[in-house]
Structures are given as C-alpha cells and as structure tokens.
Amino acid sequence: MNNYNELIQKQRSFFLEGNTKNVSFRLEALHLLRKLIKDNEQILMNALKQDLNKSEFDSYLTEIGIVLEEIRFTIKNLSKWVKPRRVKTTLTGIGSKSYIYPEPYGVALIIAPWNYPFQLAIAPLIGAIAAGNCAILKPSELTPNTSAFLAEMIKKNFPEEYIAVVEGGAETSTALLKEKTDYIFFTGSVQVGKIIMEAASKNLTPVTLELGGKSPCIVHEDANLKLAAKRIAWGKFMNAGQTCVAPDYMYIHKRVKKEFLQLMRESIYELYGQNVIETGNFTKIVSEKHFNRLITFLNNGEIVMGGKYNSSKLLIEPTVLQNVSWTDKVMEDEIFGPILPVIEYDDLSQMIKVINDRSKPLALYIFSENSSVQEKIIDNVSFGGGCINDTVFHLSSPHLPFGGVGESGIGAYHGKGSFDVFSHEKSILKQTTAFDLPFRYPNTKNALKKIKWFVK
Ligand code: NAD
Fold first, then answer.
1. pLDDT band at 1, cuts 50/70/90?
2. Is the pTM of this model over 0.85?
3. Distance from first CA to last CA of the chain, Å, rounded?
4. Which atom of ligand 1 is nearest the CA belonging to 188?
5. Share of the chain above pLDDT 70, in %
6. Cβ atoms < 10 Å from Cβ of 411
7. DSSP code at position 275
8. pLDDT tens across 375-397, in order?
9. What are the start and end residues of each CATH 3.40.309.10 domain in the chain?
C-alpha cells in the first residue's frame, strides 16, 4: 500500500505558506481550470464515451456544461464570498463589532464515484479551490479513461503541492484515509460513506458525504401526465439510470396508471428510440458486476416495456416494471440502472407512511397540479431535495444547495454552498478599548441586578 504522507505534508506546507489564501491565486486557478476543460473538451468526451458509452450531448449537458457554469458562477461571486461578513452585536456587547471570517481548512481530500466521473470530481474541486484549500482528488477506478484524463490534466498544469490526482481503487482511498487531512468530501454509496465517516472520526476530520438511496417519484391523479411521462423518462433513463438523483421507483395513482404507462412508452421511444440495444446510442452499465446485478431485477413484477439487454455491450434498454411489491429484490436497495418499478397507490397518507418507514431519500419528485398535495408531501417527508413537476433539474441550479439527509448524506454543495462546505466560519468579536463596561466584572456593585436589566 502506498504511503501518501509525503504528498499531504507537501500540500500542508504549501498551504501554511499562505499561497492559496490569496484571492487572485484562487481566481487564476479557476480561470486555468476553465480553460483546460474547454481546450480538452473533445478528449474528455472521448474518455467518457470509452468509459460509459456516453453520447457527446449527454457528456456536455451533464458533465462539462454543468461544471463550466459552476466555475463561471464561482468566479463571478468569489470576491464577495471571501470577505469577512459583519453580523449584529447584542446589547451586552455594546462597543464591539462582530464578524464571520471564512477560512480554508487546509488539505482537502475529494473521493469521487464513476457515474458522472468528471462532474463529481471537478464540482467539489471548484469549491475547494474557491475556499482557498489545497486538494487531493481520488477519481473512481471504474472509469479509468476519465480518471487518467483528470490525472494528466492536473499533473501538467498544477503543482502537486497545490492540487494532485491520485488514481486507484478502494485500497488507494484506504491509504489516503489513513493520513490526516483537514476535510473529506466523499461522493458514493451509503455503504462506503460509513467507512469514510469511520476513518474521518479517527482524526475528527469534518466530512461531506454525498450518498444515494431510493428516490421516489410520485404521480398524482391530477398530474399533467404527458409532461410527467416525458420528464420522468428523461430523468430516469439519462445515463442509463446511473444517476444518484434519478427517480428510483414510481408511485402512481391507481386511477391514472394505465394512461400514464402508455404515455411513458411513447416518451421513451421519443427520447431514446425503439431499440437502443441495436443502435447502441445509450449509456452502458459501468461493469459486468453491476450489469449482472441489474438483470436479476428483470424478473421482479411484470415487464410493461423494455427488458432486452446485451451482455457483451453491457446495455440494458429502458425498462418499466409493474405489479412490484416492497418485498421484491428490486425494492431493497438503490437500483442505479435503467429499470423503473411502478407501484400504485390510492391513499396519499398511506403512501407517505410507507416512504417514511424507510431511509430518508436523496431526492423526491411530485407530479401534481394541486398545491395542497405538493405541500402535504413536502411537509411530511424528509428528503435531500427534489422537484415539483420535474425530475433531476434541481441539482443544476447554483442557487439550490444540493445534498442528502439522514442516510442519503451529510452537507450540501453547488454555488456558494461549495465555497461554504470547504470553509470554516471563524467568528470574531472586535472589542472597543475606548471604554470598558463594568457589569460583567464580579466586583461591580449590583453587578447581577445590572446584568439582569440588560439580559431580559
Ligand atoms: P462507491 O461508494 O462504490 O465508490 C465511490 C468512491 O469510493 C470511489 O472512488 C471508490 O474507489 C471509493 N471506494 C470504494 N470502496 C471503498 C472503500 N472500501 N474504502 C474507501 N473508498 C472506497 O460508489 P460508486 O459505485 O462509485 O457510485 C455509486 C453510488 O454513489 C450510488 O449509491 C450513488 O447514489 C452515489 N452517488 C451519490 C451522488 C450524490 O451526489 N449524492 C452522486 C453520484 C453517486
């Protein structure tokens, strides 16, 4: 097992020299990162095609474009975010002024997954740079071409004492986690998230955990069914369902199920064509192991549409299952593939209860025209974030912090959230020396009475 102590020490020294605290240094790094992404766009798209059979459209929309937008937003706002913020001072603190200074943690470790192997490595890195940290990035071993691209791009353009990419699998993460870093940002499965938190606890290192889970998608009887079908087909089957916030399963109102399923079929054909296995224009499943796990779900419930697959190309066509029950295997864990189980309901409160009996989801989607139905679900179910009458789109806004709750994660990022995640908020009270209020001192006459007068 490699020892990363030397690399971390190098980064810590570089950090302590104060290099990364300079705002123009951070901005320069962000401008350079943006330029590198733009200049290497085609090489990156080729790597994503090799790793996941991603189309150029998908690669741009969900990996490159989203990251460029995040950099643009960060560059635009950074000089505002880095400033100490003045906050109110209480009556008892009369004469003093209060400030919050955002300060970088130091060396940040970022561990990324394979499903959006570029976006989910670079988006946290933007936050780490913006907040003034050094960073070590560990991409996923399951997308080796994107990982190699990241390693080369960073190595050629940034000194390793500032930003370094360390390639490898679980054993590499384990070796990195053995060392003390100042912040750990992890995106991946719930299971590995627990390992990360345990490792972090040894040094009391703060963590952000961006995890997954089973995200419900509810279609109520009054929904605009045509749009619902299209937007669910888009969010579910994008990246072949290998999206942390993809609708995992659907709850459909009994009265509209038949009509909805017909519209779903039309939407799938419209968006992806009738035979993705033959055309090959569909994201593949990342590995044989993941593929074999997914195809065992195809005999759960009853296939309404789809169900075909190709083992050598690791492709599974968009598939919808009905008559699925909570005891079926497909309902045990996050599916993370192009298989959508549909469960029907007729009682909203009962359905909410079933969702609440399980882990808090990362995302939840509600399709309904009725605001009291929308509010009832938002008020009564705890989940990371989501959309009304759409899927997945909430994560594209830099104004909406993105993260989970409970088992779906700890902490949230994107936009200013990314800067905040990688910053410690240092509270400072600047006291006056022009006078010295006597009440707080125990030798003041009637000190208690006077304090009580102030603190009501
Ligand atoms: P994973 O947990 O298997 O791997 C994530 C990272 O952890 C990889 O870099 C991997 O090398 C490393 N790793 C694996 N085993 C490890 C171990 N024992 N110790 C230390 N590190 C280890 O996750 P994955 O399969 O790459 O990604 C899929 C999961 O990630 C899904 O559950 C998905 O929902 C979740 N996810 C969440 C988000 C989010 O933003 N919330 C985004 C994408 C994916």
1. low
2. yes
3. 61
4. 30
5. 100
6. 18
7. -
8. 999 999 999 999 999 999 999 99
9. 216-398
Q: What is the C-alpha to C-alpha distance for residues 329 and 296, in angstroms, rounded to an integer? A: 9
Distance CA 177, CA 163 (A): 17
Give alpha helix (H) positions in 107-205: 119-131, 144-157, 170-178, 190-203
Q: Give the strands of the sheet with 423-430, arranged side by side.
A: 85-87, 97-104, 423-430
- Confidence (pLDDT) at 449: 84
Average pLDDT, the chain: 96
Per residue in 346-355, pLDDT (tens digit) is 999 999 999 9
Catalytic residue among 210, 221, 344, 407: 210
Which residues pair with residue 86 across a beta bridge? 99
Q: Is the model's pLDDT at 255 over the cut of 70?
A: yes
Phi and psi, residue 247, nearest 5°? -55, 120
Q: Residues of CATH 3.40.605.10 domain(s) within the chain?
A: 4-211+406-428
Tens-place pLDDT, residues 129-182: 999 999 999 999 999 999 999 999 999 999 999 999 999 999 999 999 999 999
CA nearest neighbour of 299 among 279, 324, 275, 318: 324
The phi and psi torsions of 123 (rounded to 5 degrees) equal -60, -45
Q: What is the CATH number of domain 4-211+406-428?
A: 3.40.605.10
Q: Ligand 1: residues within 6 Å at CB? A: 111-115, 120, 138, 140-141, 169-170, 173-174, 187-189, 192, 195, 210-212, 244, 334, 336, 362, 404, 409
Closest C-alpha residue for ligand 1 atom 43: 244
Q: What is the structure's pLDDT at 2?
A: 75
Q: Are 240 and 284 in contact (CB under 8 A)?
A: yes
Alpha helix (H) residue ranges in 216-256: 225-237
Q: Which superfamily, per CATH, for 216-398?
A: Aldehyde Dehydrogenase; Chain A, domain 2 (3.40.309.10)
